[in-house]
Amino acid sequence: MAGVTASALTTEGRPAPSTANGGGSAGPRGVLGALGRIRWGRGTVLLVSALYFMVPIGATLWFTVDNSPQGFSLDAYRQIFTVPGLWPALQLSLLLAAGTIVLVYLLLIPTVVAVRLGSPKLRTVVELTCTLPLVVPTIALTAGISDVLRWCNDNLAPTPFYATFLYAQNANFPVVLLLAYVVMALPLAFRTLDAGMRTLDVRTLLEAAQNNGAGRARAIVTVILPNLRSAMLNTAFITLALVLGEFTVASILGYVPFAVWIVNGNSAGQGPVTVAVSVVSLLLTWLLLFVLSLGGDRRNSAPAQQ
Amino acid sequence: MSTAPLSATPARRRPKGAAAGRLAVVPLLLFVAVSFGVPALAMAYGAFTTYNPGKPSQYTMGNLTASLQGGYLDALIGSVKLSALSALIAVVAGLLLAQAVVTSRFALLRKAVLSASGVLANFGGVPLAFAFIATLGNAGVLTTKLHLDQHGWSLYSFNGLVLVYLYFLIPLMVLSVIPSLDGLRRQWREAAQNNGATAWQYWRHVALPVLAPSLLGGFVLLFGSAFAAYATAAAMVGATVPLVTLQIATALSGNVSADATNVALAMSLDMVVIATLVMVIYIPLQRRSARWLV
């Protein structure tokens, strides 16, 4: 699913070709008559869609504030601050998200610069590499990882690598999860950063910087990166959303970050609190993504007007 | 102005720059080889071998055969059915919604729907499951208010999952089909009308054929998303609906038997094969629709 939304986020901001449908300019009477008939259908479609998409959100909010016998109560939300286990889980998720974002930057920023400057062949190789994770569903990747871990556990014990192996699975900061998340974030992050890169005239920027005496590395850090800031921010947000919501890998490998805590807590009988927590996390994530999509709209349409 | 130095230098600078460029890509390739390649190969290898600690593993087709039999096969078929049905409904519903938005007079509506779709398409996993449990689950708000349970409604079923999956599939479809709808020229419709075509004839003979690659591409894309989804189903139905992702998770958790792990690897391989097919169909379709509708 992740790979999909990259294109979604980029196509979304594309200025609409003027189909003139929105103008509502008067056409021949027959067309207007036809439109008049179609509007009924459109109204129905919009109404049904609005109901389908809003009712679950409304009902979930209702569910968290409706305390059957007494009526309205914000207890579920108050308990968020006291419920055991939530903060460690959230901390772990945020730590993993930070690690994932840093690693994604370190791996991908040199890559997108190189791809922009390099040959088409290099682009093909990189695009293919970054698309590969889409072919292996998360659960299949998890199966592979747990197989590798099982093999290591059975074969590395007598060797000095065993300590490294145990460290990689340390519950306070599981490097295994970090690696998996970076792999999962790659397709989306690459497309976002690459799309940001496309709007820059990298070659000219580098030439200009180098003519002014900057080395290649310095030119990239002080000239290219600031121009790439918004794409980097997008990548960070999307990666954060991915890591905060990730359940599959963590739950199967036995770690308890945020999303796993919510499910475990729910089955342990802390129903309303966990739903409240999931509502809050959802609203925050949505806010993040919404701001992102509005920002993307503005940014992408600006050059088009020039 | 800036082309002069560019065209003068490449002969000398290109080779050096290209080499540096390739070096910059090396960390990424190494990382993917280790973090993705090793588990992927381990999965493929494990699918074809037996596993006994201390003994050398032996080649076998047993895991794959087992993964295509009995309950495991049911799960695979269940997943394919669920993904195909929800993708099909989402394609139709997404097309209708997108068309309603594209032809709307209100620019704000378009913007709002696009932004909301961008957000909702990312809405999967646990929160989605919880939202629907709170709404239509056994103690859900709508279930109790409308006494749906007396009419035989259960969210924790195949149909329930379809209803839930549509929540992120429809926005996904809207996002992927709107660019194509924008590409339908107004002149095509006018030309059809001038030749006496009805709205239905216009759609049947002009619009749908032009949209076909992007609709099919959308279907395949949605199928892939639904097929790979795990968290939503796990948080919602546990194991009451047979799905391949749920089966893999159960087998990996080791509750079944030690052999089950290798069958889980074989099932993962089955999934990879299907996901690969999806990509192989999707990529050319996407290129084709892009070519038509620029």
From TrEMBL, chain A:
Subcellular location per the Swiss-Prot or TrEMBL entry: Cell inner membrane; Cell membrane
UniProt superkingdom: Bacteria
Gene Ontology cellular component terms for the protein in this record: plasma membrane
Gene3D superfamilies: MetI-like (1.10.3720.10)
Region named Disordered: 1-25
ABC transmembrane type-1 domain mapped to chain residues: 90-292
TM segment ranges: 45-65, 85-113, 125-145, 165-190, 237-263, 275-296
Pfam families, per the entry: BPD_transp_1 (PF00528)
UniProt topology in membrane: Multi-pass membrane protein
Protein's GO biological process: transmembrane transport
Swiss-Prot/TrEMBL keywords: Cell inner membrane, Cell membrane, Membrane, Transmembrane, Transmembrane helix, Transport
Family classification: Belongs to the binding-protein-dependent transport system permease family.
Name used for this protein in its record: Putative spermidine/putrescine transport system permease protein
TrEMBL record, chain B:
Family membership noted in the UniProt record: Belongs to the binding-protein-dependent transport system permease family. CysTW subfamily.
Domain ABC transmembrane type-1 residues, every copy: 76-282
Primary location: membrane
GO biological process, one term: transmembrane transport
InterPro entries listed in its UniProt record: MetI-like, MetI-like_sf
Gene Ontology CC terms: plasma membrane
Stretches that traverse the bilayer: 23-48, 82-102, 114-136, 156-181, 202-223, 229-252, 264-285
UniProt-listed SUPFAM superfamilies: MetI-like
Entry keyword set: Cell membrane, Membrane, Transmembrane, Transmembrane helix, Transport
Protein known as: Putative spermidine/putrescine transport system permease protein
Membrane topology recorded in Swiss-Prot or TrEMBL: Multi-pass membrane protein
Protein's cellular compartments: Cell membrane
PANTHER family registered for this protein in UniProt: INNER MEMBRANE ABC TRANSPORTER PERMEASE PROTEIN YDCU-RELATED, INNER MEMBRANE ABC TRANSPORTER PERMEASE PROTEIN YDCU-RELATED-RELATED
